Amino acid sequence: MGVEHFYRVPGLSYGALSSKLEAIRSVCNDVVTLETEACYNVEVLSPLTESEERKLHFILSSPFKPEALTRSTHLQDLSSSTLIEVGPRLNFSTPFSTNAVAICGKIGLHKIVRLELSIRYLIKWSNRVPEDTIRKKIVDALHDRMTECEYQRPISSFNHGIVPDKWGIVDVMRQGRAALEGVNDRLGLALDDWDLNYYTKLFVDKLQRNPTTVECFDLAQSNSEHSRHWFFRGLMKINGEEKSLSLIDMIISTQNHSNPNNTIKFSDNSSAIKGYTVDVMQPEKVDEPSGFLKCSKSLDIVFTAETHNFPTGVAPFSGATTGTGGRIRDVQAVGRGGLCIAGTAGYSVGNLHIPGYQQPWEDPTLKYPENFAPPLNVIIEASNGASDYGNKFGEPLINGFTRSFGQVNDGQRREWVKPIMFSGGIGCMDATMINKEIPKKGMKIIKVGGPVYRIGVGGGAASSVQVQGDNQAELDFGAVQRGDAEMENKMNRVIRACIENRSGNPLKSIHDQGAGGNGNVLKEIAEPEGAVIFTNAFSLGDESINTLELWGAEYQESNAALVDEADRNFFNKVEKRERCKVDFVGTITGNGKVILTEEDWMDDKDYLNNSPSVEKIMHPFNLELDVVLGKMPRKVFDMQDEPLLLKELSLSLNLKVYDALERVLRLLSVCSKRFLTNKVDRCVTGLIAQQQCVGPLHTPLSDYAITALTMFDTVGAATSIGEQPIKGLISAGAGARMSVAEAITNLMFAKISSLQDVKCSGNWMWAAKLPGEGAALYRACEAMCQVMGELGVAVDGGKDSLSMAARVDGNTVKAPGTIVISTYAPCPDIRQKVTPDLKGPACGEKGIILWITTSDELRLGGTALAQCYSQIGNEVPDLDYPSKLRVGFEITQHLIAGNLIKAGHDISDGGLVTCLLEMAFGGLSGLDIDLPKSSDPISTLFAEEVGWVLEVAESHLNEVVSAYNAGSIKCLRIGQSVGYGVDSLVKIRCGSTNLIEDKLSHFFQLGKRPVSN
After folding, report:
1. Phi/psi of residue 136, each to 5°?
2. Which of 61, 276, 616, 868 could form a disulfide with 663, with the two C-beta atoms 3.0–4.6 Å apart?
3. Nearest to residue 33, comparing CAs of 44, 24, 45, 41?
């Protein structure tokens, strides 16, 4: 085999070239010019013929500039220049290569086995060529070291010299716990003292044999915090008091106060609620070309949410793509198969430190670890990754959040050095397919999707390391994955073909592959009956993969399913049609064991018959499912409350509203989010009734998102998000209550079936095992559950990430404890909704502005204002009266049904003034606001108490105000919307004092995105 090279100019688009040039100049400013070319590195089994080369030239070249692709380089390396080539790491094929090789195969170029794209940079200098230390920094600036490397010479072979390691025996029978400690360190298994003692006893006393390295690796992944959720299921002791309920018990109890509309909860890859019976379109035949039929189906509404924090911190783009892909597979794998509709996303990062845009609340002296990407890179590249994956897969991204924070208070640094990458998804499923079938002896296990790659090895355990940075850096890199959205789309079409098959869905059960790889998903799908799995039945993307890697790698775009042998022909036809691998890798044996065997002949008869010969073979994995997945002793967590050292918020008595507003509008959680929405598809599928952008300029402001279930009806589902982690630094309970309140006030303006029909996914990101944090999380959970009970909403699923801390220069930096509440609920009519953009002036009318609040307090602790002055404070906004929010929600829903509200927006980050300005931005409208004379302007405008603002027509004013008054909800008329266009005026007064008076365009520029990508 050899590698042939083809070169194309230019290598980068103008925008990408400018970005790279800026990166180089940040290291060394002596650059005169930067030229680039792309290099296609084509691995061939034998030299290409002239005819084959013409074919390859055709598919690699631009149709309008075929001459730009040549066999020789376009760049000449001179004495005053530096040539640097950067490409993907050689140890695994990229998605580009996978798809390119597949295309080559379809046009007869079977000699081509790998095709990677590298970029060559020719840097010309004004003076002498920089020394080697500068060159190294430039190389670092040009590539992502997690997924790319420098090619110091043209590639002549993709052979990375890796010889598959044989799995081995861990000698606990002679060495005891020390043997497990050795493999724990060597493989980065993240086993704690409890784990090491438990497994030593298991093998020495109960099984009375040595484990294999594959079994040790598997146990670490299958029983990691990431997979088992030990903390949420554990026995809690706080300040010596044993708690009667675990965290998960408390969360499940929220269901007692809500309508019983869940069809799936706490038991599957996603949750589901009752939807509607609608007409849908589906093909007459799914395994060959055919016409479409219109038929009636009962569709339930599906929701799931998860985070992908550790991989995104290490490699932001790849981490976010695979986080999005994993969440999509959670929807696919619900029941006996689900269909994706739309996604949501969220990002929490540290201080951005944008070059040339340093903010006064960002401390430039704080350092960041080398094994994590800096926050600015994370917010740009992670959002690029999530957007890119959804765009390529064909899923719109329609709602989200973003936040930046980093402070040092009393010597303790709190910052998202380890970031949050949140991904949620809404979908639907046939109501007749909610229950997975129980495995039966003789059923076949299939793997659907992409081939096995040596990527993501040990991700579950790596994500569970208590403080990121305690693991070896190379093990961290090895745990990062890569995404291939095109393969996910192919797999999705296979699953959809099964769901829509008019002869019946052949999928008896389906699970997505996530943490723990094949080891986890194949055991889960075989539970409790057991199975034999054949290593030689898997399609490999890299022939050097060893058995441990095959069993534990978290390669993406792969699901497992149970099917009958009789359906093998169906899957062969669908596999060929959709160009997606369907591997029959195992058989349900009925003996309660999972055996991974390396036998060449792949005959399952001996395993089905429990032949004694099976046990005579030394298998890499051979364990009873009860040992691995069965009920294990609960872990005990003994925690203490730690006193919070809070200081009163100290702001200048002469602080002007203008000055405060200039800071607040630049904060990431407040500023314009166009940098997130402009690059992502928000309406593909034709089912999106409301996405982020509203008003004449498509300003990203919407509080909620709405999807239809079908193109033939106006029923659907709404979803919203709430998270208030900075308030949680003052009071964990208040932070949780305000997160729930924000989710509900965001959902308020979409007309739903009932508040009691609202179900929530709760996602927890906390450094829970560090001093004081576990107790804080418990307090937050108690508060969340209590307020949900009073509101009548409930949690039906969620995930946790409990290692939200990173090591920086030997110090532990904890991320702010975060709970993200994602609501979803049925919408009887997706057309009944209210958006934030002011509408009166555009119609030549005067809109009346109403301020509805549930509290008489005006607390500034934990607000955007406090953060912008490098403080947190000690008095935090809170949901003091949940009943007022419940009543206010129901009144607002009634008014929406009566078409009595023109615009509406919740008060959140940035307070009342931000809420008003955002409504003005959305509607290109001016404002004339009079605050109550007795109020303190700063507190009134910047407090983030639970409330909302409405624009109503003057003719509806009395009816709207009367409705709120009847419910004892405070409703104040504070002004009107006047003037249309960017030059319209925004005026805010308090009594006779003018607080703000300027053109709308001035404030719009202040809030323009601080992030550029």
Report:
1. -60, -40
2. 868
3. 24
